[in-house]
Amino acid sequence: MFKRRQFIQTASLGSAAGLLGLSGCATPGAGHGPKVVVVGGGYGGATAAKYVRMWSGGQIQVTLVEPNATFVSCPISNLVIGGSKTMADITTPYDNLEKRHGVKVVRDSVTRIDAEKKVVMLAGGGTLAYDRLIVSPGIDLMNDTLPGMAKPGAADKILHAWKAGPQTVALRKQLESMPDGGVYALTIPLAPYRCPPGPYERACQVAHYFSKAKPKSKVLILDENDDVTSKGPLFKKAWADRYKGIIEYRPKHKVVDVDAATNTLKFEFNDDLKANVLNVLPMMRAGTIAVQTGLATANQRWCEVDFLTFESKAAKNIHVLGDAIQVAPLMPKSGHMANQHGKTCAAAVVALLTGQEVNPMPIYNNTCYSFVSDEDVVHVASVHRYDADKKTMLTVAGSGGVSTAASELEGRYAMAWARNIWADTLA
Fold it and tell me: Which of 16, 120, 167, 369 sees the fewest Cβ atoms within 10 Å?
């Protein structure tokens, strides 16, 4: 029964326009019909903007508000830090959203949302009215939990590089400038955080670089969690087999402060530690605009949503996607998952704005690849289905799984996955 239902769900998403009685290609510049504004052009927001246009047959106006000129992918960005990829390899323009799909792209930031009047205010002074608002703000780093980060120059020296962009390049330069025999220290916050396996992949990338260019150097992982949060046995095998003597893993290390002047980490219970390069990942929360709007109702960090539509539980006509939400059980905060959120939300928004029934049983999947070297990769995959009784997404028993071992073949799969999801989101 599941396989049949899963097929029906997949088919319904793929042919949403036909099922809603809408057809034809999106018409660029269409000025009539309901208005949808999308805040944030990441995996969730850009996907939602594209698919609302596609699945409405161009009958719904869509405006995407995004301050950056291009899309820069967090997945694969650790390879830029490791030196095997460049920023150009992970960068895609937004042009096709406008040219092919008729999405109006506004390069600006949203400063305020008036949920009652259904209007967003832009930093540039303009306003945008909406019938439905999709907020996909990603995460913000809670630097205020580390007092030392507020000191002049600290944020320029102690990097997170957890949003792919200038800090990605800056961290790579720090590693290149570090003397052989130095120590790179990476801190990991208590879960949940964006991309559970991401820090451990980064440690592998830095260790791979050290093994080739700085063989006397060390990678020190300081994890607030009790153990590796994703693909633990596979990462530990890579550390033991490939990077013995280079990577050291220390769990239960909660960072409470930093001293940029002396490159020192301070912990709740453990002794202070100095390193040549500090890569600190603070606690994370939903992007600022979601918090300011009152959408972050879960510990003032994450946004609770109805998983049938991704409508906020705090505000009508506002949908929240991606890393910003309070996730369902075993649901990761990942680029692939944000893409799935975007499609599910797009189908729901089209249905709501055209008087159609919302799909009562959404199903979506997640695959996450991690590079343990510049070529060898491991993965974890899962399938999630809506449970009407519990009103949340639950993993499907027997679905998904993890790699048996790292391989170069999976490395080829990983790059194909990246190219395909970039195209699905932006082409």
Answer: 167
Question: What is the C-alpha to C-alpha distance for residues 21 and 56, in angstroms, rounded to an integer?
Answer: 9
Dist CA 395 CA 399 (whole Å): 8
> What secondary structure, in 3-state letters, does 333-366 show?
CCHHHHHHHHHHHHHHHHHHHCCCCCCCCCEEEE
Dump strand ranges (E) for 136-180.
Answer: 139-141
Count Cβ atoms within 10 A of the Cβ of residue 303 and give its class: 0-12 exposed, 13-18 middle, 19 or more buried. buried
CATH of domain 2-140+285-361: 3.50.50.60
In the chain, the largest separation of any two C-alpha atoms, in whole Å, equals: 65
How many residues appear in the chain?
427
The predicted-structure confidence for 281-318, as pLDDT tens digits, reads as follows 999 999 999 999 999 999 999 999 999 999 999 999 99
Supply 190's token pair: 């208590």
- Domain 2-140+285-361 shares a fold with domain 143-282: yes
**What is the number of other CB atoms lying within 10 angstroms of the CB of residue 26?**
23
pLDDT of residue 31: 62
Mean pLDDT is lowest, of 24-33, 123-132, 377-386, for: 24-33
- The answer as to CATH 2.60.40.420 being correct for domain 143-282 is no
Phi first, then psi: give them for residue 149, nearest 5 degrees: -70, -15
Q: What is the DSSP letter of 95?
A: H
pLDDT at 8 exceeding the cut of 90: no
pTM over 0.90: yes
By DSSP bridging, strand 392-395 and strand 218-223 are: unpaired
**Phi-psi group of 24: left, alpha or beta (phi > 0 → left; psi -120 to 50 → alpha; rest → beta):** left
Tell me which residue of 20, 62, 10 sits closest to 41, measured CA to CA.
Answer: 62
Q: What residue spans define the domains of the chain?
A: 2-140+285-361, 143-282
